[in-house]
Amino acid sequence: MRVLVTGGAGFIGSEIADALVSRGHEVVVYDAMLPSAHGGVPPRPMRDGERLVVGDVRDRDALAGALAGVGAVCHQAAMVGLGKDFADAPAYVGCNDLGTAVLLAAMADAGVRSLVLAGSMVVYGEGRYDCPRHGVVRPGPRAAADLNAGRFEPNCPDCGAELVPGLVAEDAPVDPRNVYAATKLTQEHLASSWARATGGRAVSLRYHNVYGPGMPRDTPYAGVASFFRSALARGEAPRVYEDGGQRRDFVHVRDVAAADVAALDAVCAAGPAGFAAYNTGSGEPHTIGEMAAALASAHGGPAPVVTGEYRLGDVRHVTADSRALRDELGWKPEVGFADGMAEFATAPLREPGRVVHQSRL
Ligand SMILES: NC(=O)c1ccc[n+]([C@@H]2O[C@H](COP(=O)([O-])OP(=O)(O)OC[C@H]3O[C@@H](n4cnc5c(N)ncnc54)[C@H](O)[C@@H]3O)[C@@H](O)[C@H]2O)c1
Ligand SMILES: [Zn+2]
């Protein structure tokens, strides 16, 4: 089958394209080569079975050409991260939401009925919390006064008790807390509307914190693992915000690519039209402090420094229950935390002037 992978020159899209080619699929890599993601560096070389189309997902004519002969779309293209400030909002909404709408319209025209979308755990806001007295509760955003005083854990909104963090499931209420998160949720709503209107099948994989070789260098758009890894590469200590106790689910990019392949199989199989979202996490929660320590130790130092700084709007804990993806799509993560971090500690990042795509250990 021919698969269009939007954002296929990016960190996760490259790995998906690789996984698809090695399963004998033909891949059209469709990517605008955003300067914020690539820093003006030319695209990685294409492998046999891949064809690059440099184009924007907001360009319907270019998409119409690229969709010729395509059986399914894997939509990874997006502006990622928190950006610099609110002035980035129109660019996020343009790339992520207008872009998704244009892509879905082009797919409707071309009769392509199978879609996998790169979703995100950011749609949940804070993760799941249990109060000993009130059961599952939903703490609001943390106050600057608490964070300044080093009170990082959210408390029960009803009784102020300490909360126990848990695993968030797909039916948890959504609570997007920044522009990027809002655009990722809108992408899902658009995909769901498209499925209903066209009889298509769509799956959104709500990735948790993806890491691995080829991750972009530290920019305002990159994730925390990349910041730590970049600091170590400069010989500097990773600077860990808050008290380092923030819990996340770090999932390896090869496992994410395998989830995309499984989801593509599912949306291409015969079945009823519709939309489904799946958490995509390792199922092995770790703290940011543990991640920094694992990277620093595998890199040979320097040891992380816990700074007590914070970013207003960051959530304290969010970790995934990815059972549905395992049970319904037969996916299983293969790369454990210790092995994955040891590899990532020395694997190259995507640096300006040198595009790295290392798909195998
Ligand atoms: N990295 C993570 O931890 C993570 C977590 C959750 C969700 N995601 C999602 O996964 C997807 C891939 O992210 P990534 O980490 O590989 O980021 P990335 O920046 O490496 O890749 C995104 C790619 O999309 C391209 N792109 C952006 N806007 C485009 C447009 N308008 N038209 C065409 N191409 C465009 C960029 O040039 C880039 O190559 C995104 O949808 C992101 O929201 C990533
Ligand atoms: Zn309570």
TrEMBL record:
- Report any Pfam family annotated for this entry: Epimerase
Q: Where is the NAD-dependent epimerase/dehydratase domain?
A: 3-133, 170-268
The organism's place on the tree of life at top rank: Bacteria
Pathway where it operates: Carbohydrate metabolism; galactose metabolism
What family does the entry list? Belongs to the NAD(P)-dependent epimerase/dehydratase family.
Protein name per its UniProtKB record: UDP-glucose 4-epimerase
